[in-house]
Amino acid sequence: MLNLVLFGPPGAGKGTQSQKLIEKYGLIHLSTGDLLRGEISQGTALGLEAKKLMDEGILVPDHVVIGMISNKLDSNKDARGFIFDGFPRTVAQAIALDELLKSKNSAISGMIALEVSDTELEHRLLLRGKDSGRADDANPEVIRKRIKEYNDKTAPVADFYKNQNKFTSVNGSGSKESIFDTIAVVTETL
Ligand code: B4P
To answer: Model confidence over 32-91: pLDDT tens digits?
Structure first.
């Protein structure tokens, strides 16, 4: 089973590259950002709680996203593998994910981290904000808050996978196609 964590700051291209990985390897895409936006658009209690935090660029509580991922793993028992996009975003989420997969006799195959400069991230997200309708893409202050949340809470997750010898870093600047070619080479070594 191929279980890939796609990692990187907001706007690094995790969602973009996930789409290409799905097409090539037939994996199930689990994006906590998309799952949360789905809850918001359905107007659920969870969505209402998450919206306030997401609009401010703050991470949603660990138990909320861990519960969502657990449900998705249970409802895709026959999957060939998963792409975890935007999850885990804290060390607590990484520990929980290891435990969830272990209980299903599975494990993370590797983490691929997309490296992009803060200036380029801000530029990409503001550009996307022009037509995405996402409140968290529209405001430079919120974007900076998201990058700070990443540096404070999410960046340490890389060490968690480095300690397990499962970490590879990829340059996330350049054309989407050339970045994907590099990701595919790494994926095929896992
Ligand atoms: P996410 O939905 O995960 O989104 P993201 O980090 O903003 O974007 P991503 O890296 O996927 O970038 P994309 O490919 O779209 O998170 C949103 C919020 O949800 C978080 O702030 C948090 O509040 C909450 N949340 C989600 N998961 C959570 C968790 N596990 N725990 C707690 N809270 C959680 O690319 C961005 C743009 O760049 C696009 O317009 C794209 O076209 C462009 N782009 C991509 N690659 C490019 C390239 N090579 N060159 C130029 N542009 C490129």
So the answer is: 999 999 999 999 999 999 999 999 999 999 999 999 999 999 999 999 999 999 999 999
Report the domain count for the chain.
1
For 7, phi and psi rounded to 5 degrees?
A: -125, 155
Among 55, 59, 111, 147, which is best to mutate for testing ligand 1, by the most ligand atoms less than 8 A from CB?
A: 59
153 flagged as catalytic = no
Closest protein CA for atom 19 of ligand 1: 33
Quote the domain boundaries for residue 109. Answer: 2-188
Give the pLDDT confidence of 105-123 residue by residue, as tens digits: 999 999 999 999 999 999 9
pTM exceeding the 0.90 threshold for the entire prediction: yes
